[in-house]
């Protein structure tokens, strides 16, 4: 029988706290096939981590059901747990008094991996992720990047069928982030039945790694496709990047014909704008509009659409 | 079963690394010996102030032995109060242990076991020191070994009860441990006989395994039970009641654990960080 790696059916998650009620997930539906490197792309607070927590059996959905490899995450966590693992970015997980090797070995024991096998795998992973030099270092003395490499190794060490990576490169320098990305890419191609679910708010990461991407915003999946197909949704469009000074009112932009959406960010003593539009003739109107309002344009470029533009077109906001 | 034992062993190893390896062994033993000895000397001084005597009376033996063995119970409760909290917020490992195939319950048992074993050392030391006072020991070794072993089961289940509560609470993890420790201290005849308690508290104490544990401790170390109330119980009855209440505690803690585990997943507190 054909079983999807992941199925999410009408999942809602509502948090009640003193500050009020948050609907973190609103009727989410999706399927991830075995062997896929699947991305969840969305801005802060979109609900990515909440979905990962549900899929990793740490959290129950308020309504709806989720399945990992055919097992219900709310009721059959015992079946799921041996088959999955997870890494979260931007945290400092690990026992500071243990060495890297000890930490990894300990977690392998919670998965019942024979000690000798585990030690072999630790060495292999250390070689692949280039952290052999810190194996005997105490965890509390590690840099952020070293710690994250250890945590990546912790999760892959157990040879999971489905691995969840929640913003795995968050806060890492370019070099380490690239090493981790290429490791993940290699890992999934090594065997057919491996599946990766990755969340990120870096569109390049999603674009570079993922077979398919779900764009999530305010608890809802608003688009789901390959990066290529997603970008086709804006293929007749382009984006215009502008820097202007001083800060002036920009609300008039959306009234210009051909402008689909735009975001502006305050920067130094001016503004940085990203406008997604579909009529090249309208560029003149925009330039004109700024000059008439006393704004100086210090930078202007026209770009091919990216995933960020898909997001911008759909939601009217930026990713980061 | 094999998996549980492996998890317990790994957790014991981890706890030993965390608790005992944090400084050189010498520092560790000073900490482990100096602290309890200090507490005991303080108690002796207080006893002297109140009674004006220090030489080996039965009342002093009662206090001294009760206090020495309370070191185990108090230490285990206080330490375990922090355990979930630390794993969740300081080491941030709780969620990774939770999603592993190992039972978190077994993990906690292992952690509690090491704490228990480590806190036995100061008791041995205090018992040796008691020879100087002198405390009139009349050891019943088989009974002492039985009492200690079952004490472990009791403390582990009490510790687990404690931990399942802290699983759901964000803060106050440690204070819950202290509350547990204080409760056992007051209600189990550690340094004063049960009969001085108001009647309803005495009745409550009869449901606590710790009450019988301390009674068995005195019987196996001093050869007699001096508590006027508990001395009415025969040794066999005392063992039986200890057995029974411990079993109830264990079942209760398991039931608690499974409902808390569910509640924690529903409320989403397994990876909560409360900035402190
Ligand atoms: N335990 C909780 N109690 C209350 N609200 C919560 C809880 N966990 C998450 N939320 C809220 O749910 C929403 C979604 O959060 P979530 O962590 O899933 O977002 P995210 O997409 O992972 O964002 P980020 O990129 O910041 O990690 C947010 O508004 C968040 O504040
Ligand atoms: Mg998140």
Report what the structure shows.
In chain A, 31% of the residues lie in helices and 31% in strands. Chain A has 320 residues and is α/β, with parallel strands linked by helices. In chain A, helix 3 packs across helix 4 (115-128) and helix 3 (100-110) runs parallel beside helix 5. The two termini of chain A are 41 Å apart. The model of chain A has no long low-confidence stretch (mean pLDDT 91). Chain B is globular, with a radius of gyration of 19 Å. Chain B is mostly helical and 276 residues long. In chain B, helix 6 (141-168) runs antiparallel to helix 7. Residues 15, 17, 22, 24, 42, 44-50, 201 of chain A line the site of adenosine-5'-triphosphate.
Concise description?
The complex is a heterodimer of chains A (about 325) and B (about 280). With about 325 residues, chain A is an alpha/beta fold.
List the helices and strands and how they pair.
The complex is a heterodimer of chains A (320) and B (276).
Chain A: E1 6-17, E2 20-32, E3 37-41, H1 48-55, E4 63-68, E5 71-72, H2 77-80, E6 84-88, H3 100-110, H4 115-128, H5 144-156, E7 162-166, H6 174-190, E8 195-200, H7 203-209, E9 212-217, E10 220-225, H8 227-232, E11 238-245, E12 259-267, E13 270-277, H9 282-292, E14 296-303, H10 307-315
Parallel strand pairs in A: 3-8, 3-9, 6-7, 7-8
Antiparallel strand pairs in A: 1-2, 1-4, 4-5, 9-10, 11-13, 11-14, 12-13
Helix pairs in contact in A: 3-4, 3-5
Chain B: H1 2-20, H2 25-51, H3 58-90, H4 94-98, H5 104-130, H6 141-168, H7 173-187, H8 199-205, H9 209-221, H10 235-267
Helix pairs in contact in B: 1-5, 2-3, 2-5, 3-5, 3-6, 3-7, 3-9, 5-6, 6-7, 6-9, 6-10, 9-10
